[in-house]
């Protein structure tokens, strides 16, 4: 199962998720994120990710905006560095700067 291209199958956003970049760590389980639609939202790191996945500034994440409060979102996934580079190379996150 050798793949010479180095391309990995990555988790892509569903219809209600957006790519986002973490701009600020607000403490606890909250971060400030800049979403691909241009909105700045407060992201909440759910308990299932809080102690298993460290989220730092400039990380690329998948965020799901709340239906009832658009200025907030749940963080659903964090991409590692090489995965974020692959997303940039494929043109998925051109609008995000990190």
The total count of strands amounts to 5
Tell me the Rg in angstroms.
14 Å
List segments where confidence is low: pLDDT < 50 over at least 5 consecutive residues: none
* Sheet of most strands: 5 strands, mixed, barrel
What is the 3D form? globular
Order of strands across the widest beta sheet? 1-2-3-5-4
Give the rounded overall mean pLDDT: 82
Distance between the termini: 33 Å
**Oligomeric assembly:** single chain
Fold and architecture overview:
The chain contains two helices and five strands, in the order βββαββα. The protein is 13% helix and 35% strand. 20% of the residues are buried. It has a five-stranded mixed beta barrel with strand order 1-2-3-5-4. The chain starts with 17 loop residues before the first strand and ends in a 9-residue tail after the last helix. The mean pLDDT is 82. It has 98 residues and is mostly beta strands.
Précis, in short:
Belongs to the eIF-1A family. With 98 residues, this protein is mainly beta.
Observed structural traits:
mainly beta, 5-stranded mixed beta barrel, 2 helices, TIF_eIF-1A, protein biosynthesis, RNA binding, initiation factor, RNA-binding_domain_S1_IF1
How do the helices and strands line up, and which of them pair or pack?
Blueprint: E1 18-27, E2 30-35, E3 40-44, H1 47-50, E4 60-65, E5 72-78, H2 81-89
Parallel strand pairs: 3-5
Antiparallel strand pairs: 1-2, 1-4, 2-3, 4-5
């Amino acid at each position: 199962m050798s793949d010479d291209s180095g391309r990995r199958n990555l988790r892509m956003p569903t219809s209600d998720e957006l790519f986002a970049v973490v701009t600020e760590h607000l403490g606890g389980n909250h971060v400030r994120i800049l979403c691909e639609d241009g909105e700045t939202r407060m992201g909440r790191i759910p308990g299932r990710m809080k102690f298993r996945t460290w989220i730092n500034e400039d990380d690329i994440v998948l965020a799901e905006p709340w239906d009832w409060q658009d200025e907030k979102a749940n963080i659903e996934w964090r991409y590692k560095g090489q995965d974020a580079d692959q997303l940039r190379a494929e043109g998925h996150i051109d609008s995000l700067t990190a």
